[in-house]
Amino acid sequence: MLRRRKMNAENEANADTALLSEKQSDVRKNGSKRVLTYYKKPIGARFAAFALRLILFAFIIYISIPFLFRFSPTFRRSLIFMNYINLQPFHNLSQPEMHYGLNCTQPFFIHANDVKLGAWHIFPKQRIHECANESRLAAEDFNDDRPVFLYFHGNGGTRGGRHRVGLYKVLAYSSLNAHVIAIDYRGYGDSSNVSPSADGLELDANAIYSWLSSKINVSRINVWGHSLGTAIAVRLAGKLLKESSPNSVILDAPFTNVAEAAFSYHLAVVYRWWPYFCWFFSEPLEQTAETAFDSLKLVGNIKSPLLILHSMDDITVPICLGQKLYQKALNASNSEVKMVVFREELNYGHKYIFKDKELPKIIEEFISKTN
Ligand SMILES: *[C@@H]1O[C@H](CO)[C@@H](O)[C@H](O)[C@H]1NC(C)=O
Ligand SMILES: *[C@@H]1O[C@H](CO)[C@@H](O)[C@H](O)[C@H]1NC(C)=O
Ligand SMILES: *[C@@H]1O[C@H](CO)[C@@H](O)[C@H](O)[C@H]1NC(C)=O
Ligand SMILES: *[C@@H]1O[C@H](CO)[C@@H](O)[C@H](O)[C@H]1NC(C)=O
Ligand SMILES: *[C@@H]1O[C@H](CO)[C@@H](O)[C@H](O)[C@H]1NC(C)=O
């Protein structure tokens, strides 16, 4: 009897060897039963109980998410807009030069529809020397012949996000030598802390577009959207008259509509097999105004030439969505539509097309042809 107990204990001990230090193993070989009973068994048991609880907890979360998504608009908004995420909490958007390495950038605010929007004017490289002067450039100063890019960022973070600043630098400091206007929508960055919605973001886009087109001829404006920002750019440009449409619209990693984007999103893979996926995820996204982004429906109404950029290794917004939007635009639009695809080996993913050495040339050709 005693022998059997000892053997059981030893078997358990073998299973737990990884948890024991060498010294404890030695003690075990010497046949000390005390080590076996007081040391190992409780650790193994406690670990199993902990692991079980962890699995149960993860399972409850896994089951709850679809229900939260279906029934809580707040939860949906928080996943779609992610405006509360700020990876650079100690960066001050009022000091673009010091905190974001953007020389000679003017921070300013636009006030519209009871909302304050934080914005930057990044100057073309040919104007940077003017900043050495005490009389610094003003946000309204477009007094040259350079093109202007109006940038609409994607979800999460602020206009100061690294990949965003990376793109501004390409547009302003490469051969493109252009102005960039970047804004934060409501609820993002230093803009008013108002809950974001599709309609609200469209109002914000309209506000900055009106501000800009009151300063310069729209034939100098090029609208650039990235990710969720492509849907905002399409909502803006799709509703403008021909005479107030920008020189071009550039969509960087666009999607068709928010329901398809949710289905194709890489993390959705854990739910895609659920029989009621559409009921849980797609329907509430499509059928509530606050998240109703439908670029597929509006893209044909854009009167400006349209350029789509997409990387083949984009797992956040798969390229098939960009291609579908492109096909629809080709079919529906009367003006030029072009798509540029970046190969998988380049590893640009969802955010890093700005690193492409050819990009300034691609953009320059596209926006100047349209003049
Ligand atoms: C950011 O900078 C501005 C202007 O330099 C300053 O007024 C403001 O207090 C700063 N904000 C924070 C949170 O440090
Ligand atoms: C920006 O300023 C830094 C430091 O003053 C300088 O090294 C850099 O060359 C400047 N960049 C441009 C594009 O002028
Ligand atoms: C600074 O600006 C003034 C007025 O615009 C100009 O006369 C002067 O030459 C500028 N100085 C430099 C160093 O650019
Ligand atoms: C804007 O520019 C276009 C083409 O460059 C020109 O035909 C048009 O008259 C300009 N509009 C205004 C209001 O200056
Ligand atoms: C484009 O138009 C053709 C013919 O009108 C149609 O067969 C095709 O399905 C359309 N494609 C898209 C993506 O709308």
UniProtKB/TrEMBL annotation:
AB hydrolase-1 domain segment(s): 147-260
Swiss-Prot/TrEMBL GO biological process terms: monoacylglycerol catabolic process; phosphatidylserine catabolic process
Spans traversing the lipid bilayer: 50-69
GO molecular function, one term: phosphatidylcholine lysophospholipase activity
Cross-referenced Gene3D superfamilies: alpha/beta hydrolase
SUPFAM superfamilies recorded: alpha/beta-Hydrolases (SSF53474)
Keyword annotations of the record: Membrane, Transmembrane, Transmembrane helix
Domain of life: Eukaryota
GO cellular component, one term: endoplasmic reticulum membrane
Protein name, as recorded: Monoacylglycerol lipase ABHD12-like protein
Native source organism of the sequence: Dinothrombium tinctorium
